[in-house]
Every structure is written in C-alpha cells, then in structure tokens.
C-alpha cells in the first residue's frame, strides 16, 4: 500500500511538473548515426517514400550519401552511397520529383570555373540512375525547386517533360543583376495559397540602413495575422562586430525594417554573425522549439573577442523594447544552453524531428580536428510542457494508389498551410507556414511543417492546405479540413491537382506525455481502490471467523 501511495504521488507530481517548460537537450548522436556521424548535412527528403524523413549528406566534398530512416539503431543508415558522383566537388543538394514519376530525384550543383553546373540524377527504386546536365549558371548559386516538376533559376522556369528534356522560359522581370550571395523564396505572401503568384506586386520594404553582409529569409513571426513576414540577419560592418536581425511585415506599403534582436553582448563578450562567404552567408534556421505557436531560430555566432563559434537558440518572446514595439515580438538568446555550448567550432545548426513525434530536435555540424568532413551532432529535445502541435506533410499528388514506388508520391516544394482556431482564452488564433520554400545555401528546410498550438487543447477549427496553380489559371487550389485533433500528423494527397474536393488526407495521432501520466495516475488510483477493497474484505472475513469461534464456544443453556 505504501508503494501504491508513492506511485500515485509521483504520477501527480510529474503531471503537475508538466505545466512548466523544460529546455533540456540530450545527445543521441550514437543512436542515430553510430560511428558514421561525419559529413555535411545538405538536405532532407523522403527518398524511399516511406513517409519517414531521410538525410542527404556530402562526404569528402564529392561523395553523396543518403541516410535512410530505420526503426532500429542506428536509426539512420547510409543505404545509398555514390562515390565521386560528379568527378568534382558538390556544392549543393536539392531532392525533388523533377520528371513527375512520383519517385524522388536528386539535383546536384558543382563549380566549373566561374560557372555552376547543374545535374539531375533520376531516382528509380531507391537508387540513382543517369544524370541530365540542365544548365550552366554564371553565378555560384543553388536553384530554388518549385512545384509541378518545374523549378526556377533566377527568373527562368525549367520545365522537365516526360522525356526528361528541359525547356527554359522567362518567369521574372529582373531590372538589375542578382547579388552574390543572394536570397529568394518560393512562398505565398498574400494568403492566396499560391506561392510566388503575385511576387511582382509585393511592395518594396523601405531601407534606412546599410547592411554589408546579409541574407533574407521569409517566415511567420506569429504576431497573429497569419502573413509571412521577412527576417533579415545583417552585419553592419565587415567583421560583423555589429550584428542585427531585422523584420519587415508583409502586406503593407509603408513597411520598414524593425530590429528584433540587436544585443549580442554576453557580459563583457561580444558575439556576432560569422562573416559570410559566397558559399554560406549569415542565415537563421527556423522552427517552433517549444510549441508555443511562435517560431524560434537556431543560429551560429562567433566570439568577436576570440575565434570560437557556437550554436545558440533564439527564442521568440514578447517584445520588451521600444524598438520592436510595432511588431510585438523579439528574439531572446539562450546563452546558458550547456548542451549547445559543449559543441565547439559549430558551423551550422538546424531543427529536425528525429523521432517523428512532432517535437523538433536539433542537428548541429561542427569542424572536426584533423578531418575534412564536418562532425554531425544530434540533440534530442526533451522539452516537457502542456503544449500541442499539428504536423502537416503535403505530397506531390501526381498519382493515387497506382504510384510506382509507394502511394501518393513524394514531398514537394510550394504548398502552403494555414489554420485558424480559438485559444483557451477565447481569442482567435492564426498561423501559417510554407513547405520547402527555400533550398539555397544549405537552408536545410524540412519536407513538412510543424505548427505549435500552445496550451490550447481544442480541436483546430479550420485547417487550409493549398498548392501552386499552373501559370494562367485563376482558380485557387486549396481545401479545408475541420476539427483536426491536436498532436496529430496530417499527410495530404492533393490528387488530382485541379480538383481540390477530391483531395484526401491521412491522420496519425501522436499521444503526448500527459496521456501517459494520466494513464499511470488512473492505474494507480484503481490499484489503490482494489487494495482498500481487499483490506476491507480481509477485515470482514476475520470478523466473521472470530464471531463463528465465539459462537462455537458459547454455552447453550437450552441443551441442559
């Protein structure tokens, strides 16, 4: 009985403790990669169509290695290895379905003097086939993949037909030269569920500063309006001693760059962005770390008093400064993350759902002494809070149940996800995100979106999913789902593309820790009640036996 009471007490304490946020990380590198945790993580994608995210890496500068997700340790195994696949160094990897056969192909780029060569290797039954040399670019950049077997090279749409031949047509009217390094994204800015459809109509943001080093990212800073805003990590001097992150809101012609983080000083030490080069400008990798509905960021900063580099978590918090009052949000640096601080000479850090449970973990890459390849570190997010999420993956939808390799196709860039619901206080809450909107400069975007719901356990009232439409079409391609269960994963199959009412979705539930703790408490209460019943039954039986013995020894006068 004592142990039962202890178990119930422990369960309720754990359930109560779940109300408070815990930012704890656990190194699980050995469980994921074993001894093979070296290489440059270049991209994510579902190569074998098992709805598990695989990892594309570059080793020895010229080898392509694809780690496929597995259910047994190590959970990522190097199943596809292509040694010296191009005969030269690989500069970027962009997986996607480029020929419309619902199997994932792989696009690689490589330098050829001042030009960049682009190769596409056709996927076939989890292998890589022959390559197509698409185009030569005059500047060293990575292409942005787009939907419907179409991808873009700075205003030039390359359409790959069934014969796997390319046709180039002009897509954007550019009045000036593209800067190097550059930034672009294929994403919906006006909530018409069509990525890039009205990009030319978006107003320019007024600039009142000169940034010598910068890289633009599009994201939603979760201020409640559901629009994608612009983030700009910038250096105001050549050595990045003065680093700042600016934000500009979309949908307004008088938008200005508002600083949301400018204090990079820790005690007496000044930190800042790593001075960029042509292959890796300053960048933020975004994800909702604590599922509060406000996307956070991972960034690598350099100690300006020394030479060390370290990855830091930037938490999205309410603004407490006059400079960011107009946008209402700002970033706060977690200086005391010991697990991230233990990784020296960090080069790149990004979010990744390691265990496919809807909680974003971390992958950090660092320079390894005596090795050419980067070392990969995997950190599990042991975040515990009464918070909820919804995870959405939109597939290509180029076929239905007759797909050549697994049903419903592979994940594709361009889809847009948005939800509206009512929080626990009765206020309307909006959030949105684009899937695979960028691929340049190792942006490492995930082939799905994880939208935090905070502590609202209510059903999602409305969840909208849209995909880009063909040029010239006017009808929006989107569909609405209602009453979506929190802590669930929704896999959307938009087949056929032009008939949204025929689209289907599969819903997978991910029970939270609160369910387990509640079950433990319930079982403990049941055991406690059974013990009480057993004790009372035993006492009653003893009383009956005592009464029978007394009755047997009682002297009966009637017998005399």
TrEMBL record:
Pfam (any one): FG-GAP_3
Segments traversing the membrane: 515-538
Name of this protein: Integrin alpha FG-GAP repeat containing 1
Protein source organism: Neolamprologus brichardi (Fairy cichlid)
InterPro entries: C2_TIP, FG-GAP, Integrin_alpha_N, Tip
Boundaries of every T-cell immunomodulatory protein TIP C2 domain copy: 407-508
Cellular component aspect of the GO annotation: plasma membrane
Keywords: Glycoprotein, Membrane, Signal, Transmembrane, Transmembrane helix
Subcellular location: Membrane
Family, similarity comment: Belongs to the TIP family.
Chief site of localization: membrane
Signal peptide: 1-24
Lipid bilayer topology: Single-pass type I membrane protein
